Amino acid sequence: MYTNKQRQVYHCIGLMFFLSVVMFTIIQIEHISIQKVSEPERIERQTRMEKEIDLQNKSTHPISVNFSTEIMQRMELLAEHPKESTTWDIISSNCSASLSFLSTEWFTSLNSDFKQFLLYRHCRYFPILMNHPVKCAGDVDLLMVIKSVITQYDRREVIRQTWGKEQTINGKNIKILFLLGTSSNEGERANHQKLLEYENYIYQDILQWDFMDSFFNLTLKEIHFLKWFSMYCGNTSYIFKGDDDVFVNVPNILEYLEASKDTKDLFVGNVLFKAYPIRNKMSKYYIPEVLYEKNYYPPYAGGGGFLMNGPLARKLYGACETLELYPIDDVFLGMCLEVLQVKPVQHNAFKTFGIVRNENSKMNREPCFFRDMIVVHKLLPPDLINMWSLIYSDLDCSKKI
Ligand SMILES: *[C@@H]1O[C@H](CO)[C@@H](O)[C@H](O)[C@H]1NC(C)=O
Ligand SMILES: *[C@@H]1O[C@H](CO)[C@@H](O)[C@H](O)[C@H]1NC(C)=O
Ligand SMILES: *[C@@H]1O[C@H](CO)[C@@H](O)[C@H](O)[C@H]1NC(C)=O
Ligand SMILES: *[C@@H]1O[C@H](CO)[C@@H](O)[C@H](O)[C@H]1NC(C)=O
Ligand SMILES: *[C@@H]1O[C@H](CO)[C@@H](O)[C@H](O)[C@H]1NC(C)=O
């Protein structure tokens, strides 16, 4: 027979066992039901559970160990904002040419750039060579991303000195990044890559990916940026994306954005409606029917400079993922917008086509014109510097031009 003392001890052990089974069950149930609740509720619950587990830890309850590590892991997955540890997840450039249409008749009639594009069309993502994971940290109102190539350092330099300055205007935080691929030419790669690294070391404003910078690879630049933005810029409000040979009026952008605060899917630029693919085989931009069969492109904004908001950019990343790459970057983005059923908005302050064709046009050299614009294409470094100093001199624009 048991003594009283022994009986007490067994009672105690029995009770503890019962309690731990109950606790285990409760946690298990909560654990399962977690999958069915909404996101905020889920986070709230997990925080609560973590606290419970913490308490159990203190009483060195044996079943707590597994759950606490598992929950910690889930919490990390749930964290809404990107962590410092977020890394570009593509590590290999190894993608071989697809030879399936080499023997087709239409393929042999294409020019070599086009052939190159088609052979590598399925290679979507490449490793990142220069990254700035914390560029968007905190509170960025306007991120300006500029397409550039290694050799055009003079354009980048002048942009940094003029409209591309990282600064805060009326409390709006502005950042800049240049988007680059690698050089297509071996000599350039050897000589310029080191200079680029130094430039990036000084200015901390270059994103570079390991794909060849060529006209038909601009679409790669587009999707790499959208992916990058979705990974690192969860809190960024607006994006200006453009070329490195344009004039940009940042105060006008800010004014426009202030007035469009309530626009949900903001996408504005110099929009072409009903542009058509070029069917002349002699043209550099000839598009065979097998590549694009419709007569018209969806509406798209000229890639020289346009504005979009952060939430839309994140949606565009997903939308573009559903499409095969198209060799013209701004048309491709128009196709992604079409997937989302978002219509790009035309605005006359974006002049990304055609200004320069008429050499004698007053628009080419008239500072009062530039002062009222948002983007003007095209202005190379010496002209940009001149125009910049004219606009910010005591400019009298009351006279009719
Ligand atoms: C809980 O216990 C585990 C394992 O013993 C330990 O790794 C963890 O740091 C403890 N957590 C707390 C908050 O004490
Ligand atoms: C605890 O974790 C280990 C390793 O992660 C696993 O093998 C084991 O089944 C877990 N135990 C429980 C009760 O979940
Ligand atoms: C590239 O990938 C192919 C097959 O996936 C493999 O056979 C080849 O060795 C790889 N080359 C390099 C340089 O990694
Ligand atoms: C996101 O932006 C808001 C203001 O727009 C700011 O208060 C907040 O700290 C930012 N959050 C992060 C994680 O940067
Ligand atoms: C685009 O870049 C990839 C990777 O460097 C290259 O293999 C491909 O030939 C390029 N395509 C064009 C059209 O230049």
From TrEMBL:
InterPro entries for this protein: Glyco_trans_31
Family classification: Belongs to the glycosyltransferase 31 family.
Regions that span the bilayer: 9-29
Organism: Triplophysa rosa (Cave loach)
Function: N-acetyl glucosamine (GlcNAc) transferase that catalyzes the transfer of GlcNAc via a beta1->3 linkage from UDP-GlcNAc to the non-reducing terminal galactose (Gal) in the linearly growing chain of N- and O-linked keratan sulfate proteoglycans. Cooperates with B4GALT4 galactosyltransferase and CHST6 and CHST1 sulfotransferases to construct and elongate mono- and disulfated disaccharide units [->3Galbeta1->4(6-sulfoGlcNAcbeta)1->] and [->3(6-sulfoGalbeta)1->4(6-sulfoGlcNAcbeta)1->] within keratan sulfate polymer.
Domain of life: Eukaryota
Pathway(s) this gene product operates in, as recorded in its UniProt entry: Protein modification; protein glycosylation
GO CC terms: Golgi membrane
GO molecular function: hexosyltransferase activity; UDP-glycosyltransferase activity
Keywords for the protein's UniProt record, in alphabetical order: Glycoprotein, Glycosyltransferase, Golgi apparatus, Membrane, Signal-anchor, Transferase, Transmembrane, Transmembrane helix
Catalytic activity, EC: 2.4.1.-
Its membrane topology: Single-pass type II membrane protein
Keyword NAD: no
Gene Ontology process terms (BP): keratan sulfate proteoglycan biosynthetic process; poly-N-acetyllactosamine biosynthetic process; protein O-linked glycosylation
Location(s) in or outside the cell: Golgi apparatus membrane
Top class in the EC scheme: transferase
Protein name per the record: Hexosyltransferase
